[in-house]
Amino acid sequence: MTGETSSTISSEIIEMGAACTIEELCLVCNVEAEWISELVEHAVIEPIAETGPNWKFASLSIVRVAKAKRLRQDLSLNTPGVALALDLLDEIEELRSRLR
Q1: pLDDT of 1
Q2: 3-state SS assignment for residue 8
Q3: Quick one: which of 15, 31, 46, 48 has the most CB atoms within 10 Å?
Q4: CA-CA distances (angstroms) from residue 12 to 9, 28, 60, 77?
Q5: What is the DSSP string of 54-90?
Q6: Could you tell me which of 70, 89, 69, 72 has the C-alpha nearest to residue 81?
Q7: Cα 9 to Cα 28: distance, rounded to the nearest angstrom
Q8: Cα–Cα distance between 7 and 33 in angstroms, integer?
C-alpha cells in the first residue's frame, strides 16, 4: 500500500450480562477514571452497582465509552457535547429500527 497507513483493528467479544469495574473499563478503553466519572455525571453510561470507586458497569459500557472517546478525539467535543451526540445517535438508531 503506497502512501497509506495500515491500521490494525482489534476486537473482543463482550459477554452479555457481564460486568466490569471502573479500573477495567479505564484499562480497556485507555481513559482516566475522572473521565469515566464525568460520563456517569452526564448520563453517558450508568453504573449497575455501588458508587464511587466501587462502581460496576455492564460490559456493553465498553462500547459506549469507546464511542465517546472517538467523539471527544475526532470532533474535539467536551463531555456534555459527547453526551448530546451519543443521545442523538441513539435516537437515530431507534428511528431506523422503527422504519425496518
Answers
A1: 42
A2: coil
A3: 31
A4: 10, 10, 12, 27
A5: G-EEETTHHHHHHHHHHHHHHH---HHHHHHHHHHHH
A6: 72
A7: 14
A8: 27
What is the residue whose three cell numbers read 473482543? 12
For the record, the C-alpha cell of 51 comes out as 458508587
Residue 86 grid coordinates = 451519543
Output the pTM of the full model. 0.77
Give the confidence band of 19 by pLDDT, cuts at 50, 70, 90: confident
Q: How many CB atoms lie within 10 A of CB 51?
A: 8
Dihedrals phi, psi of 57, to nearest 5 degrees: -125, 150
Q: Which amino acid is at 8?
A: T
Per the CB < 8 A criterion, the answer to whether 82 and 44 are in contact is yes
CA–CA gap between residue 30 and residue 67 (Å, rounded): 12
Cα–Cα distance measured from residue 8 to residue 64, given in angstroms and rounded to the nearest whole number: 20
Choose among 5, 91, 82, 96: nearest CA to 41: 82
